[in-house]
Amino acid sequence: MRISDILRVKGERVVTVAPGADVTELLGVLAEHKIGAVIVSSDGGRVEGIVSERDIVRALAARGAAVLSEPVTAIATTQVRSVSRDAALVDVERLMTEWRFRHVPVVEDGRLQGVVSIGDVVKFRIDELEHERTSLAEYITGERA
Ligand code: AMP
Q: Which segment of the chain is annotated as a signal peptide (predicted)?
């Protein structure tokens, strides 16, 4: 299984935020799209950072409400780990587990192609297991569900 299999199902739409946006605008973007992280990008294609709800929580705990008027770049992670479309799903699961993050941008030729979240990965694995279970049941009983 490859990352491209997930993107094919979930689509390639990616939500980005400009580096100059402030944290209050970021909150609006996360709430509007019902997502937990957003890619920081000036042009919607080049990944300049990633900022997740955890970054907001940490910054609020450390510096209080003043954070809300800071630019997203003040709290974003700039050393972003990305994967290519042909990355094996199992390697991306390992990456997320090892580095303890729940989002990975998919980048090809320096351009953003999608974002895969831990929720996408879990959904994909559950669908896969259900498919296997049905196939095995059919094989054993000789009946189609
Ligand atoms: P998350 O679990 O994705 O909400 O993110 C946890 C922390 O890891 C936050 O500080 C994020 O900015 C950072 N982070 C999330 N995704 C990535 C990534 N692909 N590469 C590097 N850091 C990330």
A: none
